Amino acid sequence: MLAAFVSSGGNMGQAKQRGTIEQRIAQAQAKIEATRPEKLVCNGCGADVTTIHPVSTRGLTGVESIWLGQCDCGQTTFAASGKPEAVQAFFDALGSDTELTLGSQSRDGSQHETS
Ligand SMILES: [Zn+2]
């Protein structure tokens, strides 16, 4: 994947330009980290999954963040936040392609149900 950054305003300072991009990336990551669930509840065995990784939402309009948790039992649990219809569309797309069990839970994992 090739990413192109276009600067405007005649700022030719390479180091400063790189810093700006790094700041933007850091801000974007901080925004994503703010939505990180405390834990995911495994849809397979109900165990707490605390090893959670962010997944790119590139191309998924309306989806703020997607989290993937890999349980010790082998099940993969996804959590997504954003506009409800966009999140639903994401899970619909997942469900048609895989044999994942999908569920919903609150951010702290206290309320959990599988669909
Ligand atoms: Zn499990």
What would you say this structure looks like, in words?
- The chain has 115 residues and is α+β, with helices and mostly antiparallel strands.
- The chain has a domain at 40-114.
- It is 30% helix and 25% strand.
- Strands 3-4-5 form a three-stranded antiparallel beta sheet.
- The longest helix is centred in the N-terminal third of the chain and has 20 residues, at 14-33.
- The model is unreliable at 1-8 (pLDDT under 50).
- The structure holds zinc ion (ZN).
- Zinc ion (ZN) is lined by residues 42, 44-45, 47, 71, 73, 75.
CA-based shape: globular
Strand order of the largest sheet: 3-4-5
The helix tally amounts to: 2
Strand composition percent: 25-35%
Main structural class: alpha+beta
Rg, rounded, reads 18 Å
Main sheet makeup? 3 strands, antiparallel
Bound heterogens, unique:
zinc ion
- CA(first)-CA(last) distance: 35 Å
Average pLDDT score: 76
SSE series: HEEEEEHEE
Task: Give the uncertain stretches in residue-range form.
Answer: 1-8
The proportion of residues forming helix, as a percent range, comes to 25-40%
Number of strands: 7
